[in-house]
Design a protein that fits this description.
This protein has six helices and six strands. With 188 residues, it is α+β, with helices and mostly antiparallel strands. The longest helix is centred in the N-terminal third of the chain and has 30 residues. Zinc ion binds next to helix 3.
């Protein structure tokens, strides 16, 4: 980023997910809570629909489909982040990586409006969940799709946490993507 751009923005808050273990722990706790919530809701819905307990029979082939699709869904997740980083900023140079148990897509130093950053954060959750629901409806290994949906939902904890943090600020703020998290900025 050049000096001119730097001068236009004032840093309000720096959020470090990579080195700040307190922030990282929060995300992990949210992730676990989301997973428990998902299982709980799923059991209730199943019970209401079928009036029976849930039973899964799992074959080797199911495990293979499960593992492959799980990896694919998380790769798609990061690609969707990357795609939206690019849609909102044509010159964006997207970086994909893996750190501390998390896959990530980032556009280091890219600055986005609050609304844009919320869309970038939530798009993978919305698109992937819709995709998995469609696969369930067409009866493509519905039990596996459901499990992947739950794991993916809890994997979106970091995205939800960013949206939660951003939502506390006025709509005129900007969000800068950094290598370690995000910066909340204000235009001077
Ligand atoms: Zn994400």
């Amino acid at each position: 980023m050049n000096d001119l751009q730097e001068e236009q923005y004032k840093l309000i808050k720096k959020i470090d997910l990579l080195n700040n273990s307190k922030e990282l722990n929060k995300v992990n706790i949210i992730s676990i809570l989301l997973f428990i919530m998902f299982i709980f809701i799923t059991i209730i819905i199943f019970f209401l629909i079928t009036n029976k307990n849930i039973s899964f029979t799992f074959h080797i082939l199911d495990s293979i489909i499960f593992l492959i699709l799980l990896v694919v869904i998380f790769i798609i997740h990061e690609l969707i982040h990357g795609l939206f980083f690019k849609i909102f900023k044509k010159e964006a140079r997207i970086k994909f990586g893996y750190s501390k148990g998390m896959l990530y897509a980032s556009n280091p130093e890219g600055i986005y409006s609050k609304k844009q950053f919320i869309i970038i954060s939530l798009a993978p959750f919305i698109i992937n969940t819709s995709l998995l629901i469609i696969l369930m409806i067409i009866n493509f290994h519905p039990a596996i799709m459901l499990m992947i949906m739950g794991i993916h939902f809890s994997g979106c904890a970091g995205d939800f946490y960013f949206v939660y943090l951003i939502s506390k600020y006025h709509s005129s703020i900007y969000v800068r993507d950094t290598n370690i998290g995000i910066d909340i900025l204000e235009k001077d």
